[in-house]
Specification:
Elements: E1 19-21, H1 26-35, E2 53-55, E3 64-66, E4 72-74, E5 85-86, E6 109-110, H2 112-118, H3 143-150, E7 153-154, H4 166-171, E8 220-222, H5 230-236, H6 239-273, H7 296-299, E9 303-308, H8 313-320, E10 326-330, H9 339-353, E11 368-372, E12 379-385, E13 388-391, H10 392-410, E14 416-419, H11 425-442, E15 450-455, H12 458-461, H13 464-470, E16 475-480, H14 482-493, H15 504-507, H16 513-528, E17 533-538, H17 549-568, E18 572-575, H18 581-591, H19 609-613, H20 622-640, H21 651-655, H22 660-665
Parallel strand pairs: 6-7, 9-10, 9-18, 10-11, 11-14, 14-15, 15-16, 16-17, 17-18
Antiparallel strand pairs: 1-2, 3-4, 5-8, 8-12, 12-13
Helix pairs in contact: 5-9, 6-10, 6-11, 9-10, 11-13, 17-18
Length: 666
């Protein structure tokens, strides 16, 4: 019987799986053998290559065509690309004993309607008979305590795991890694007692000290290299790099699921109750706490280049040669995260750090790299650890740190990061735990990694001080993400008529009260804790001819808006167009003194929840509707064409195109 010759594949002809013989052409046959991990195979004199087959599961759909009679056949130039090669598992001296919960601990899948029917959210709950084990007492509408007690999986908002154990979600929610930090109590959850023992965990990947080695039966599966990027793939995904990624994902995957579950529960709570976010204080015995000082290269960053897609090699080189103080190397909004773009972008950063990009300066003389991995909701579909796709930000961060962290540190140029789409201090705590673990694994001093958090979500705006506290040894400050911040109102409160935004191009800008209050609060919060506060990105694309009336008009508009941010006290901001770097640096130097404005404490600022949540007045216009539809279509076209989203219309539009349809819907 005929079986597939690919390493590790068990498909056979009798299983009704089509088989295809190796090509007779020597070069194509060699490519097939390398991709199938059979490059050391040579048939005996009595054998022929076409006696050996690869099954159809190793070919993408576009590698097939159809005959006139409708029969599917393999294209003459087809190349196999779909493989799941397994990394040899690490072995340790003694395996960790696995915790197996009783069947009663398994999570019940419920809908929100079922939850509401089973619970009255009233004081009567306090007199109800306690289950075994005793349940914590609940206050009226205490959704988070209810979630903690029952560990529900909300069906309307599918989370990644189909089954989670009650003990994992109910007893270890956001607690691991807090032994050296003072806890911040979430809504409806009391502060953990100092003498309480560490929470049990059902994960074999994670111990309270985060030092457990991967279990012997764990595996890493990687898709074969993108076509044309085989050398880059080999440079990046070495066995040691894959082993590091495996351990990183294994250690933190459970906590990633927890923060995503918390996002879902907070959104459900807001929808069900009609509540609005509120400010909370940091639970600490030292009210005068401050973040750790930043390295010299971060203390003076008046103008950064924003949304620079690293897969665009020429633009990356142009940015490295520019007069900017920093480059936001964007694997998130400014980049279409196809497998090809991710591998090329990661490899371009690797080459930039190691001085391998042509005509680019040494990394210590170039603008500082502010590396921006994908947000938590993004998944890397081309890598699996233990049969589960890995979180996109862990894939990006892990490879960047493994290949570039030490080099950047040695040249006093990093590693520095931007953290996008953060919605709560729990997510900042998770990032801090990841930084601590990574520095320990790579032998870097604690506090080496510095990160700027983009406050581009309305819920995060109410937790800015907590976010700084969670990252205080690793904080490089906070950043205003104006357009994503505006879009987050639609995401969190879009079903409420009082939060319908008017025509954005006409009525939504930094001069509106809800946005100016947001920036004032960010500057005040950062500077009071010794952290840098950076403004948004000037996303305007300038004409190539500088002596035109259009150029002067656009430059005047950018100058006016950026001057508002400088007067608000920001320590720097971003531009997209490289031609704006020098005029914006001149503007900053004209109106400020020194490297930054940390001395501007903004003690005059008094921002309330109402200030942040009051929508601007204005209406919906036909022009706005047509414009949003146009931008949405162009954005989708650029995304499906694997181009940078900035190519949709303008970088400004791409910034808020987390929801091109949301603005139309509202």
């Amino acid at each position: 019987m005929v079986g597939c010759s690919a390493n590790g594949c068990s498909n056979r002809w009798e299983q009704k799986v089509r088989m295809y013989g190796f090509p007779t052409d020597g070069e194509r046959r060699k490519t097939w053998l390398i991709r199938a991990r059979r490059d050391d195979f040579t048939p005996s004199p009595t054998q022929k290559y076409n006696n050996y087959k690869l099954c159809e599961s190793h070919f993408e759909a576009d590698q097939f065509c159809f005959t006139r009679k409708g029969r599917k056949k393999l294209r003459s130039d087809a190349v196999p690309t779909v493989f799941a090669h397994r990394l040899a598992a690490k072995r340790r001296k003694a395996p960790v004993a696995r915790y197996t919960p009783p069947p009663a601990a398994l999570v019940r899948r419920q809908t929100l309607a079922q939850i509401c029917s089973e619970h009255t959210y009233s004081a009567k709950r306090d007199q109800a008979p306690a289950p075994n084990p005793p349940a914590p007492q609940h206050n009226k509408m205490d959704f988070f305590s209810m979630l903690k007690m029952h560990a529900i999986d909300i069906v309307q908002f599918q989370v990644q795991d189909d089954v989670m154990r009650e003990s994992e979600l109910g007893q270890t929610l956001f607690e691991p890694g807090q032994s050296e930090r003072e806890p911040v109590s979430p809504v409806g959850q009391s502060e953990r007692e100092p003498d309480s023992p560490p929470s049990p965990t059902a994960s074999a990947c994670q111990s309270p000290e985060r030092e457990t080695q991967p279990d012997s039966d764990m595996s890493v599966e990687m898709r074969a290299a993108p076509v044309g990027l085989e050398p880059e793939y080999i440079d990046l995904l070495t066995p040691s790099a894959l082993s590091f990624l495996q351990e990183l994902v294994c250690t933190f995957d459970q906590e990633v699921d927890q923060v995503l579950t918390l996002r879902v529960s907070r959104k459900a709570h807001l929808d069900m109750t009609g509540d609005l976010p509120e400010f909370r204080e940091v639970m600490t015995s030292d009210p005068s706490w401050r973040v750790s000082p930043v390295p010299p290269r971060l203390s003076r960053r008046h103008v950064d280049v924003g949304d620079l897609a690293p897969c665009d090699t020429q633009r990356l080189i142009d940015g490295l040669r520019s007069a900017a103080q920093g480059l936001q190397i964007d694997f998130d909004d400014g980049n279409c995260p196809t497998y090809h773009n991710q591998i090329k972008g990661l490899h371009n950063v690797y080459k930039a750090v190691n001085g391998l990009l042509p005509e680019a300066p040494p990394i210590q003389q170039a603008p500082v790299l502010m590396l921006r991995p994908r947000a938590w909701n993004m998944v890397e579909h081309n890598m699996m650890v233990n049969g589960k796709e890995v979180p996109g930000p862990l894939f990006d961060f892990g490879l960047l740190m493994f290949h570039c962290g030490r080099k950047l540190f040695d040249h006093q140029s990093g590693p520095f990061f931007y953290l996008s789409k953060v919605e709560s201090y729990h997510e900042a705590r998770l990032w801090n735990n990841i930084f601590v673990w990574t520095q320990d694994k790579l032998g870097l001093p604690q506090g080496t990694i510095k990160a700027t958090v983009l406050i581009e979500n309305v819920l995060a705006a109410f937790e800015m001080e907590q976010i700084l506290f969670e990252l205080k040894e690793h904080s490089a400050g906070l950043n205003c993400g104006i357009w994503d911040y505006s879009a987050s109102f639609i995401n969190k409160f879009g079903q409420r008529s009082s939060f319908v935004l008017p025509d954005r191009s006409k009525y939504v800008n930094m001069q509106k009260h809800f946005l100016s209050s947001y920036m004032d609060l960010l500057v005040q919060t950062c500077h009071s804790r010794g952290a840098l506060a950076t403004g948004g990105m000037a996303a305007t694309l300038m004409p190539t001819e500088a002596d035109t009336a259009t150029y002067r008009t656009l430059l005047d508009t950018v100058t006016r808006l950026k001057l508002l941010e400088i007067k608000a006290g920001v320590d720097g901001f971003m531009v997209y167009d490289l031609s704006l770097i020098e005029p914006m640096q001149t503007l900053f130097q004209t109106h400020t003194r020194g490297d930054n404005q940390l001395d501007q404490l903004r003690e005059d600022v008094r921002v309330t929840a109402e200030d942040l949540l009051t929508m601007p007045s204005g209406g919906v216009t036909l022009h706005g509707l047509q414009y949003n539809i146009t931008v949405g279509i162009l954005f989708i076209d650029a995304w499906l064409s694997a181009k940078s989203p900035e190519e949709a219309e303008s970088p400004e539009e791409a910034e808020s195109e987390t929801c091109p349809g949301r603005r139309i819907w509202t």
